Amino acid sequence: MREIVCDVAIIGAGTAGIAAHRAALKEGARSVLIEQGPGGTTCARVGCMPSKLLISAAEAAHVARSAEGFGVRVGGVEIDGPAVLRRMRSLRDDFVASVFEGLDDLPAESRLTGRAVFEGPDCLRVGDHTRLRFKAAVLATGSSPSVPEPLHDLGERVLTTDTVFEIEALPESLAVLGAGPVGLELAQAMARLGVRVSVFDPGDSLGGLKDPDLTAAAREIFSGAFDLHLGAEVESGAAEGDGVHLTWSAKEGADSTSGSGRFARVLSAAGRPPNVRGIGLERTGAQLDERGSPAFDARSLQCEGTALFIAGDANADRPILHEASRQGKIAGRNAARLAAGAGVERPERWVMLAMVFSDPQIAVVGGGFDEDAGHRVGGADFCDQGRARAMDRAQGGLRLYAEPGGRLVGAEMIGPEVEHLAHLVAYAVQDGLDVAAFRDRPFYHPTLEEALDTALGQLMDRDG
Ligand SMILES: Cc1cc2nc3c(=O)[nH]c(=O)nc-3n(C[C@H](O)[C@H](O)[C@H](O)COP(=O)(O)OP(=O)(O)OC[C@H]3O[C@@H](n4cnc5c(N)ncnc54)[C@H](O)[C@@H]3O)c2cc1C
Ligand SMILES: NC(=O)c1ccc[n+]([C@@H]2O[C@H](COP(=O)([O-])OP(=O)(O)OC[C@H]3O[C@@H](n4cnc5c(N)ncnc54)[C@H](O)[C@@H]3O)[C@@H](O)[C@H]2O)c1
């Protein structure tokens, strides 16, 4: 076994790990980046990018089908499933290749291939070939899709985001377990591509929304997009011919009813637990909770009482790309500082910003709706908004939340292209703007952004 000594060991060459490695090298640390394979990042290979490619194809089909409403006749719309999937994979492969190209400038000796497992608080074994001693380490191991128990033993009939982008043809029907961001985005894309889709979720919300008005709007909108079963849990699954037979039970008061049905394939979109098990964390001195996750400081990313830092999906705090990238940078820099005997930094956190690329899109800024916080609420409805109506996309609404003193704290929204509005609100919240200061900004006419002006106006009226 080869023995290597370094300052900083980074486990996982995903978005967080690559950012951490670069930050540690920039600080002058001898940093080693370890990847078990295949690499290329979850975002590019099986996450953000292939999902958005599939969504774009689905949107093209939807726009063509909806053109008639504008008096534009497109003719019959046909979906060539294998062609859709080939384009998605071809561009996806380009994105993955560009991640690898981006690593070319890193010194070859600063990278190791193999699965890393802790042997002790300052020692890792990589595969069966290398023992790496370090002064500080960054855990950037990401997360993996969970598969609920009723779907175990159904083999390839059950898809996850690790496999769904590899299928050669679109299935005739698809049951999706989970109405979070993954489930919602892929369910709608598949439905628009002609797949018969049913979505099951034991919860009663969609895409991370908590605001009751917007949740009600979302339920109505997505019930029209596919067969939606909220408050319903899949209890059993059995192989039936080439497909799967599922039975589900609905809780009392749910929109859904209990039932059963056959599906060609099932997509498990029931969450992504962090990859913290089976890597010897119990040998590091970190305080682990019942799921095996270490206690850590959300600003410095240091795991309490250790020389370990945890960034990206691995800490399950904010499992989204821009947070993985920033957390990686902070963790890598802090690991290098600790290794050099300096103190760690605790930068302010960014305001939380999360989105779902469904149609209409969903976005949550800050903590979103909080029933107990005593926030004031201002809203706007896209159903009667001029630009949304012109686009034939008049659905949903937005809610802004402010402290009684007027400081804006967050928002939830579901509506056309709210990704842009959500950024504006996130910047306003992060800059500490109050309602009056945010409203004293230009809102061009006619734009979707005018919905913000309406909601801010409501907040000001309520203020007296
Ligand atoms: C379908 C889907 C769509 C998404 N869409 C979006 C989106 O639109 N926008 C957005 O912001 N976010 C999106 N996300 C979330 C985003 O992809 C993740 O938050 C982000 O990729 C996490 O990056 P990471 O660096 O933490 O993990 P990863 O990129 O997963 O990197 C972790 C790496 O660690 C390696 N590893 C694990 N254990 C070990 C070990 N013991 N030894 C060595 N290596 C190891 C893994 O092989 C992997 O390469 C999406 C996710 C999914 C699944
Ligand atoms: N647009 C984006 O930015 C985007 C897109 C996809 C994923 N992501 C990120 O990836 C993370 C993981 O997304 P996700 O949607 O997989 O997880 P999630 O944890 O956000 O949602 C999982 C959903 O599955 C449901 N669920 C749990 N157990 C279930 C079961 N047995 N049967 C049916 N449903 C069940 C939960 O109630 C929940 O609604 C997200 O938190 C998000 O940060 C982001």
Report on the structure:
With 464 residues, the protein is α/β, with parallel strands linked by helices. The chain folds into three domains: 168 residues, 3-Layer(bba) Sandwich (FAD/NAD(P)-binding domain); 120 residues, FAD/NAD(P)-binding domain (3-Layer(bba) Sandwich); 111 residues, Enolase-like, domain 1. Helix content is 30%, strand content 23%. It is built from eleven helices and 22 strands. The protein has a five-stranded parallel sheet, with helices on one face. It has a five-stranded parallel sheet with strand order 9-16-10-11-12, covered by helices on one side. Strands 18-19-22-21-20 form a five-stranded antiparallel sheet, sandwiched between helices. Strand 10, helix 5 and strand 11 form a beta-alpha-beta unit. The chain is globular and about 70 Å long. The termini are far apart. The structure holds flavin-adenine dinucleotide and nicotinamide-adenine-dinucleotide. The site of flavin-adenine dinucleotide has 35 residues, from helix 1, strand 3, helix 2, helix 3 and helix 7.
Brief rundown of the structure:
The protein has 464 residues and is an alpha/beta fold. It has helices spanning 15-26, 42-46, 48-66, 81-102, 181-192, 212-223, 321-339, 386-390, 418-430, 435-439, 450-463; strands at residues 2-5, 8-11, 31-35, 111-113, 116-120, 123-126, 130-133, 136-139, 158-159, 173-177, 196-201, 227-230, 232-240, 243-250, 259-263, 265-268, 308-310, 353-356, 361-365, 376-381, 397-402, 408-415. It folds into three domains: 2-45 and 88-144 and 273-339, FAD/NAD(P)-binding domain (3-Layer(bba) Sandwich), CATH 3.50.50; 149-268, FAD/NAD(P)-binding domain, CATH 3.50.50.60; 353-463, FAD/NAD-linked reductase, C-terminal dimerisation domain (Enolase-like, domain 1, 2-Layer Sandwich).
